[in-house]
Design a protein that fits this description.
6-stranded mixed β-sheet, 3 helices, SH3 type barrels, 6-stranded antiparallel barrel
Length: 186
């Protein structure tokens, strides 16, 4: 059984392409093309299920057409529309640090060199100009800029990202919340 901490999200399957079971695949990480891997993992009904890749070809920098083994018709492929695609974390060990994408850090523990454990990275937000780690800090969401210069260590085996954050960044949300409370009180 594949566990959540053994994979990370790399994209989503879109609509079928053609009649032979090929699917459009929008990805955020092309690791499936950069390492020796024979399969991807799909999240089906809350269960991570591996599917062997028969072939794929790129359509753009973020889209590929992918054919999965034993998915041979458009009808079979249609059942995969909107399905999230994951990739085994252990394959990232094959890559040098400069080739890692931010998405790989989802599920890592974030530790700060002066403050210790901050929380777990639950998501990577790439919808803004600056990529952000979404960190669950005791039930509250903390947004931390994903910047190479903040990272001091990456422990892939134990899934720990150690950072050295600028002073005040961890208390920025607290300061903002206090200012909002003060404004409401006046």
């Amino acid at each position: 059984m594949i566990r959540r901490e053994e994979v990370y999200k790399i994209g989503v399957l879109n609509k079928p392409h053609g009649i032979h079971g090929e699917l459009a695949f929008t990805f955020t990480d092309d690791i499936f093309d950069r390492v020796e891997a024979e399969y991807i993992v799909c999240l089906l009904g809350g269960i991570f299920v591996p599917f062997f890749i028969e072939e794929y070809r790129f359509r753009s920098e973020t889209t590929a057409l992918i054919k999965l083994e034993d998915i041979d018709t458009a009808e079979q492929a249609r059942r995969f529309t909107g399905i999230e695609v994951y990739f085994p974390v252990h394959h990232t060990d094959e890559l040098p640090p400069e080739e890692l994408t931010w998405d790989i850090f989802e599920g890592f523990r974030m530790e700060e060199i002066h403050h210790g454990y901050i929380g777990d990275i639950t998501d990577v937000d790439t919808t803004t100009v600056n990529t952000l780690f979404v960190v669950d800090r005791g039930g509250e969401e903390l947004l931390v800029p994903a910047r190479e210069e903040f990272i001091t260590d990456i422990d892939r085996q134990h899934r720990i990202l150690t950072v050295n954050l600028p002073e005040g960044l961890l208390t920025l949300n607290e300061t903002y919340d206090k200012e909002e409370e003060d404004e409401e009180a006046t």
